[in-house]
Amino acid sequence: MVARLLVTLLLLAACDGAVPVDTGGDDPATDAVDAEVVDPERDSEGDSAGRDSGGRDSGDGGTGGDTSAPATLTNVGDRWIFRRDDTVLEIDPTRGARVARFTLGDVELLTDAAVNPTNWGATFWTSPQSAWGWPPIAALDTEPYTVTADGGTLVLTSGDAALGDTTIAVEKRVSLGPTAVTLAYTVRNVGDTPVSTAGWEVARVPTGGLTFFPAGASVASTMGSFPYTEQGGVVWFDGAAPRSGDAKLVADGTGGWLAHVADRVLFLERFADLAPAEQAPGEGEIELFATSDYVELENQGALTTIAPGEGVTHTVGWSAVPLPAEVHAGVGNAALVAFVERTLSEARAEGP
Questions:
Q1: Of the candidates 198, 299, 290, 304, the residue with the CA atom closest to the CA atom of residue 253
Q2: 147 contacts 158 by C-beta, under 8 angstroms
Q3: Pairing mode of beta strands 153-157, 265-270
Q4: What is the dihedral of CA 261, 263, 264, 270, to 10 degrees?
């Protein structure tokens, strides 16, 4: 009897040691990875393997936190492509290092060259425009940038360009985090004379969407008659409303954000909020330019005097999230503004 009991206890002990236990923790190696550079030949396989076919969960009225796979960065031909779940960001270094695509699922948020062969995608200028007139400085806007991949960050550097009495160059650092894209634009003075300038991001979106931002100290049409509405402390532009001719809006905002909704996807830009005195002369913290083919969403950084050998950085965050089913995309909708504020809070918790 004692012998049988001893055998039974030994068997139980052996079985207990052989059963693997899942503690529910994450793989430390996976946690440490924010982005990985992917071989183009493996890109399609790697993309599908880690993606949730259901896309983002918008049922709770937020972005849902970081439940996605790490971002990937892939070089395909001339372009560099970030992917994370159903978000895709594509950079074209040969064309002014523009953002050529920004998509959530099947929704393309930016225009391409088929809409306008010159003004498409998202680009970067210096402000004020009076310092260079038109067209934009080619080295910054249309000419090739050099490119390197620094881990999960893409670093793009322009050629030198004349600005006023000095020479500048622009560096763009682009990354895709758990909930947002970060674009850090640095203007460097590589000449011998100080220069006063500000960063200026310009993103072109298709017509027909709804654009809005919290009103600040001023808002004005500077070209044509821009059809905006100010309601509930928010400036609204209904891109689907009838209008005639090109028009431009220049404004001061509050809160440091500019939002655009198209096909029930929120495209949210966040940046440092400026006081009116910090804005470049004749310019605004937020500007909108509307044509019959596209709308420009523009934000600017603070006017800064840059000494030779120094630089100034304008950092912008982009988020693309689906609207919850209960949120209507309409002028004056407080629930839409509240959703933007929740999305903004989550994005700012991630980074700049």
A1: 299
A2: no
A3: unpaired
A4: -30
- What domains can you pick out in the chain, each with its CATH number? 34-350 (2.70.98.10)
- Burial environment of residue 290 by CB neighbours within 10 A (0 to 12, 13 to 18, 19 or more): buried
What is the reported pTM? 0.83
Question: Amino acid letter at 180?
Answer: A
pLDDT, tens digit, for every residue of 148-206? 999 899 999 999 999 999 999 999 999 999 989 999 999 999 999 999 999 999 999 99
- Rounded CA-CA distance 208/211 in Å is 9
Nearest partner of 336 among 262, 266, 272, judged by Cα: 266
- Whether cis (ω within 30° of 0) applies to the bond prior to 128 is yes
The number of C-alpha atoms within 13 Å of 257 and in the hemisphere containing its C-beta is 24
Q: Per-residue pLDDT tens for 245-300?
A: 999 999 999 999 999 999 999 999 999 999 999 999 999 999 999 999 999 999 99
C-alpha gyration radius of the chain: 24
Structure tokens belonging to residue 252: 């001061």
262 touches 253 (CB < 8 A):
no
CA distances (Å), origin 142, targets 78, 159, 170, 184 = 14, 11, 13, 18
For 300-326, letters b (16+ CB in 10 Å) and e give: bbbbbebeeeebbebbbbbbbbbbbee
Which residue has tokens 């009103």?
Answer: 215
Q: What are phi and psi of 38, to 5 degrees?
A: -110, 140
Beta bridge mates, 259? 212, 268
Q: What is the DSSP string of 267-312?
A: EEEE-----GGGSPTT--SEEEEE-SSEEEEEEE---EEE-TT-EE
Q: Do 56 and 66 touch, CB atoms closer than 8 A? A: no
